[in-house]
Amino acid sequence: MSRRKEPAIPNDILDQLLAGTDAATALSQGGLLDSLKKAFAERALNAEMDHHLGQEDQGANSRNGYGRKTVTTDGGRIEIEVPRDRESSFEPQIVRKRQRRLTDVDEIVLSLYAKGMTTGEISAHFSEIYGASVSKETVSRITDKVVAEMNDWATRPLDAVYAAVFIDAIHVKVRDGQVANRPVYAAIGVTVDGCKDVLGLWMGVGGEGAKFWMSVLVDLKNRGVRDAFFVVCDGLKGLPEVVANVWPQSVVQTCVVHLIRNTFRLVGRQDWDAVKRDVKLIYAAPGPDAALVAMDELEQKWQRKYGAMIRLWRNAWEEFVPFLDYDVEIRKVICSTNAIESLNARYRRAVRARGHFPTEQAAMKCLYLVTRSLDPTGKGGVRWTMRWKPVINAFAITFGDRWPGAETY
To answer: Measured between alpha carbons, how far is 345 from 324 in angstroms, rounded to an integer?
Structure first.
């Protein structure tokens, strides 16, 4: 016969808390449970402040009273006191600045996991910051709960038409007998409403070809994507041919940002300014003919010193040129990838913090949780970081017969 487990809160303490209070009152809005949540949040915030002040190098910083903040819980709204410091350098984690909902332990664990912390590091974090015991096994169970959610996300219906789909790789280290680099491919769609949406994540093995890309694009097509005006990628072997089969009207475009970044890896720092001016004449040219003239001039000027840079541009030329046929507002979407780069930066930061992952699933969970943190509701992505009205007008005019709602659809 198994022994009964000890309760998380001793019965004598519960009896004291419930003295003179019936169950209905304890569970009601504003009742005992809300009081406990308030007490826990304030205790945790004060523990965080103590830890923060203990890490200060100069020791000049100190507490500076409390501010009041109203947050929403599952039971209603409660007011908590948030400690302040004189230098205003305190960044609380249990209830973050501008956070309006009281986060539970599961969400804290998932947030820390998305930042690349291991289960052991998260367990130690809870012990150090909150004085709470959360075992590695518990942390692992919490993160495992997200697998079903991740699978639902990976099969959710998508829009019929995207202005552009960017496909890029993030490299992770997976320990499978021995640690090896594995690419994870992310497809990021720009909706016709001007939102960025991560369409999916796929684990590769390196050196993927047409068969792999066919499976990725057929997955997207089966989930509802019938057309993408541009598919932007960077040297992914076999992908252009597959795009031509799955979305025959799509323009396959080399990622201009990656092309420029790779250019400067082949150029000495002393020549960066000069090459930058010459390269800009190519990607900012009014049309393909003017770009070719600028390319010839670049080759004539730099071939002897930087032959590898010239080969880079010549090899990419066929898939670099297409966007030059379009309106300047459409070009901005192809070239201005700040929103894409910000997502990749978050992925890379989490991967670097982790070092390596024990399994493919652990790596995918981490990247999914990074994605989830950008849009916790999963209801429409994140706004593109540019004025979208001129862009949508340019796309609607240029691709009018393929625009959502057109007769062809």
So the answer is: 28
